[in-house]
Each structure stands twice: as C-alpha cells, then as structure tokens.
Design goal:
The chain has 13 helices and 32 strands. Strands 24, 25, 26, 27, 28, 29, 30, 31 and 32 form a nine-stranded antiparallel sheet that branches. Strands 18-17-23-14-15-22-19-20 form an eight-stranded antiparallel sheet. A hairpin with a 4-residue loop joins strand 8 and strand 9. The longest helix has 17 residues. The relative contact order is 0.11. The structure holds guanosine-5',3'-tetraphosphate. Guanosine-5',3'-tetraphosphate binds next to helix 1. Keywords: Cytoplasm, GTP-binding, Nucleotide-binding, Protein biosynthesis. One of its GO terms (molecular function) is translation release factor activity, codon specific.
Length: 530
C-alpha cells in the first residue's frame, strides 16, 4: 500500500467571526475535543487572560479584545490540525487578513440571535477572494435565536454564497432540545453540561422513533420536520466540489459554551476540508508533495514573552519537510540561513519543533531580518507571490518625545513597522514620520508597545488624511528624491512610502478628485502590486 504524504493529514484553518459570536469559546472546545487540554477554558478563558500579568496582555485587558494571534495545533480523528487564531477586533483587520493567507479553510461563527454581522461580512469577503472553503457554525442555540430558515437565507442573501445545512436545530433558547443530522435523520439530544467543561454526553435516536416525543414537545418535532422538508425541496443540494471552491458553505448548528454540536462540526469539517494547498511561485504551482522545502512568513511578532526580548516569525510551510537546523535560502536578504530556533506554540507554552510538513506553521525565534511575505526555501528559484498590503485609511504623525530615547524610538519603530503593526511614510520634505493603518487602534498599539517594550515616549497626532494613492507613470511607481510637483489642490499632500515611492494623501474623495483634475496625466494606484 502506498504511504500517504504526511501533508495529507494536515488541515489548516482559521475561525472568523464578529466579536462575541463565540470564536474563543469554539477554539477552546476544539482543543478540548482534540484532547489538547483537560478542561476547556484553561487556555484562553477571559478569566485566565485577565490573570496573565504580562505587559502585553495589559492592553488586551484594558481593551477587552484579543490582540495577538496564536497558532494552536492538536490532533483529532487521525488529523493534524493547525488552528490559526485571528484577532477579534475590527482594527486588526490587516493582521487578520494576513493570517487568512496562511489557511486552507475557515469556519465562520455566527451568533444565532444576531445573524451575519458587519465584521463577519468583511472577513468573509477576503475568504471569498481567496476562493477557500468556508464552513459555518451557527452558535448559541441555547439562547433565543432567529428562525433557522431566516439565518440560512441571510447567509445566502447577504454573503452571496449557497448554503447546505448539514444538521438542523430542534428548538432554541429554553426549548432547545437537540440537533438533527440531515443525512440520516438521527437526533442528538441536548443536555446541558456544567459550565461546558466536559465533552457533552450524546444520546442519539432516530427522529421518527416514538421515544423522541417522550423527550421533546411534539410541536417542535413537527416544525423541524417541516423545515427540513422545505430545505430538501428548496435548498441547495450538497456538493463537495462546490464546497472546495468556496461556492457552498456547509452549515452546522450548536452551542459552543455547552459543547453541543462541536463534535459534529469537527467531524464534518475534517471530512470535507481540503488538504494543504499549493502556492504560486510566478506561474508555477508549488505542491505540498514537492520535495523541496518552501514556506512563507505571514506574521511577525516581537516581544511575545516580555521576559525574553524576542521576535517570532510565523512560517506557513508550503512544500517539503522542515527540519530543525536546516539551511534555507532567504530570498529577500539574498543569503543562506540556518533555521535553528524553531518552535511551535501552544497558547503561551512553546515546544521545540524538530520536523514539520506542508500545512504546518512553525514559529522561528531570533533576530533574522524576516519581513512579512518573505519566502524561505531550499531552492532559490522559488519565490512566492507577495502577501497584499492593504491601503491605509487613517494616518497620524509620530515623533519621539525626548532626544534621550531617540535611539530606542528608532529601534522600536524599525521593528514594529517590520512586523506590520502600521505602515510608515515620510512627509515630502523628509521631516515628519507619518503612520498609516487600516484602523486607528493600530496607532495606539504602536504607541503602547514603543513605550512599554522600548521605553520610548512618543507624541502621536492624528492627521486628516483618509485616502492614499500611489503616483504612477507608465505603469511604474514614481520615485525620486524631489517631489514630482508642488502644484497641489487643498486637502492634499505628497509623501513617500518606505520604498521611496511618491503617494498622494487626500482628506477625502473630493480632494482626490481635485488632485486628478490638476494632474490628468498621472495614473493613481490604490495599492502597489510588487
Ligand atoms: P469571541 O471570541 O467571538 O469574541 O466570543 P467568545 O468566545 O469570547 O464569546 C463571547 C460570549 O459569548 C462569552 O460570554 C461566551 O461565554 C458566550 N458564548 C459563547 N458560546 C456560547 C453559547 O453557545 N451559548 C451562550 N449562551 N453563550 C455563549 P461572556 O459573558 O462575554 O464571557 P465569559 O465570561 O462567559 O467567558
């Protein structure tokens, strides 16, 4: 019998949701079912998070949001699952988007009482652009919910994706009695578990079994049967091909806090989710089975552990086998490096990684000059396409408060910009540092980290700009030391990006329109594709 490639049992996913829909709870429950922890909640429960005393956590505590993403790995049902956590707050969208470039599928958590919310929609669009499979978990069935038919309709109408419920709820809120598997009509009866701490016991019976009506009010059963008949007639049929193309989302119902429906979701997800996908290097698709090792950096984070000033670059392995201490080609630095300090993360714990395969994520600790999007490979001809940079929508100027800490300010800025906390620009005269970010909270994170991690007090002032465009001439970004024009309408300014390309910053679309009238011959690009 041929031995399957180790990457074929890898599944790499992220969970996306609007804040409070239950992403953290579901993550914990996955770990519980994966046997990675004994009691759900011991990894990331808010209570524990609050008890964590690191400085970095302090900001999370103040804000009540999750800032850093972590990679969690566990085994379940013979699969090796890599779960990439995505930060929950809207302002961290850029970081979240980058994480999404490193996964092969996502689970979208929807609060059954609220339906599809704004942030879910935004994240969903990014997944759609990548064409990755999207699974839906409709959570909090133990609370009063909207009608399940409405929820499924909303997913189809608002998100524009076909859906196929794999199971169906029997009641909701205080009358929530269980979940019916559509494929075989089996009912999993709901039992509340104490604080959701243990795997939920499951009693299963056929929906048509007369015993069901001893446990459940007849009207609920009749209603569920009627709704499922409607789905059979009017709903999209199940189609694995369409799932893999991201055109049809399998929908699961449950209650993460009560461990209910989690196992059905995990089993369903793992039976349908794709193996690790290849990645394009120019026109060539590098497949996971390719013997050459390759991977790319999708996230960098410094000072994760304040006790050890360190920096971790997260690598998604695309092909071949990773071995500790291996030599690889680091394309953007144009040199060979040794990957000696490789680690995998389990919440705050770290473990040395000796080997890993396509689909896995490895954290490299050290001071290598990695940047987001960098390729690491044993074959220097492989170079993965860049991870997209998102055009900033808010801007601020920043400077060190005192000259005494100027050196630390520069070191901190260099590091944090490299991590992608914010983008950095320079005023046309070269006198002012301008920060650009998708959301303003990123500025606060930068300021906080400069002060706490680098001891550099800063002055940060918001700028009025909301729109950025790169100046282009004949398809190329305009560079050069001197500003290409001083003929600017009101509400506009010129600045340079970190690569020395000229950009126009505008207060609003109207100002940008005036700029276009002044400079009809220039093309303006919303972003640069390297
Ligand atoms: P997030 O990561 O998507 O932001 O959501 P999170 O898991 O933190 O859940 C948000 C709140 O919803 C939490 O309550 C959590 O306990 C609750 N929750 C999650 N799943 C369910 C569910 O199936 N049923 C019900 N009723 N609630 C659920 P909290 O009060 O904000 O925090 P906590 O102290 O309970 O952890």
């Amino acid at each position: 019998m041929p031995v399957s490639h180790p990457s074929s049992i890898r599944r790499t996913l992220a969970i996306i949701s609007h804040p409070d829909a239950g992403k953290t709870t579901l993550t914990e429950k996955f770990l519980l079912y994966g046997g990675a922890i004994d009691l759900a909640g011991s990894v990331t429960s808010r209570r524990d998070r609050r008890a964590t005393t690191s400085d970095w956590m302090e900001l999370e505590k103040q804000r009540g949001i999750s800032i850093s993403s972590t990679v969690l790995q566990f085994t379940y049902g013979g699969f090796h699952v890599n779960l990439l956590d995505t930060p929950g707050h809207e302002d961290f969208s850029e970081d979240t988007y980058r994480v999404l470039t490193a996964v092969d599928a996502v689970i979208m958590v929807v609060d059954a009482g609220k339906g599809v919310e704004a942030r879910t929609r935004k994240l969903f669009e990014i997944c759609r652009l990548r064409g990755i499979p999207i699974f839906t978990f409709i959570n909090k069935l133990d609370r009063p919910t909207r009608s399940p038919i409405d929820l499924v309709d909303e997913i189809e109408n608002v998100l524009g994706i076909a859906s196929h419920p794999m199971n169906w709820p029997l009641g909701d809120g205080p009358r929530f009695r269980g979940i019916i598997q559509r494929a075989d009509g089996q009912l999993n009866l709901f039992e509340k578990t104490k604080a959701g701490a243990y795997r939920a016991p499951v009693s299963v019976m056929g929906l048509t079994d007369p015993a069901v009506r001893e446990h459940v009010d007849g009207d609920l059963v009749d209603k569920a049967i009627e709704e499922m008949e409607l789905l059979d007639i009017a709903g999209a049929p199940f189609d694995q091909e369409r799932v893999l193309k991201g055109e049809l989302t399998p929908v699961f119902f449950g209650s993460a806090a009560n461990n209910f429906g989690i196992q059905l979701l995990l089993d369903g997800f793992l039976s349908m989710a794709p193996e690790p996908s290849g990645r394009k290097s120019g026109e060539t698709l590098i497949e996971p089975e390719d013997k050459r090792f390759s991977g790319f950096v999708f996230k960098i984070q410094a000072n994760m552990n304040p006790k050890h000033r360190d920096r971790m670059a997260f690598i998604r392995i695309v092909s071949g086998k990773f071995e500790r201490d291996m030599q690889v080609w680091h394309g953007s630095a144009a040199k060979q490096i040794r990957l000696s300090n490789s680690q995998k993360l389990f919440a705050q714990e770290r473990e040395i990684v000796d080997e890993a395969f396509a689909g896995d994520v490895v954290g490299l600790v050290g001071n290598q000059p990695f940047e987001i999007g960098d390729t690491l490979t044993t074959d220097s001809s492989i170079k993965f396409d860049e991870i997209p940079v998102f055009p900033p929508e808010c801007f601020a100027t920043i400077r060190g408060r005192t000259t005494a800490t100027a050196k630390r300010f520069r070191a901190g800025m260099d590091q944090l910009v490299r991590e992608g906390v914010t983008q950095l620009f320079e005023s046309a005269a070269g006198t002012t540092m301008i920060l650009g970010a998708v959301g303003p909270l990123q500025f606060e994170v930068l300021k906080y980290r400069l002060e706490t991690e680098y001891g550099a007090e800063v002055v940060l002032e918001f700028s009025p700009w909301t729109v950025i465009r790169w100046l282009m001439a004949e398809g190329e970004p305009v560079g050069g030391v001197n500003a290409p024009t001083d003929d600017l309408p009101g509400g506009c300014a010129l600045a340079k990006d970190s690569a020395g390309h000229w950009v126009v910053l505008a207060e609003a679309e109207w100002a940008l329109r005036s700029f276009k009238r002044y400079h009809e011959n220039w093309e303006l690009a919303e972003r640069l594709v390297k």
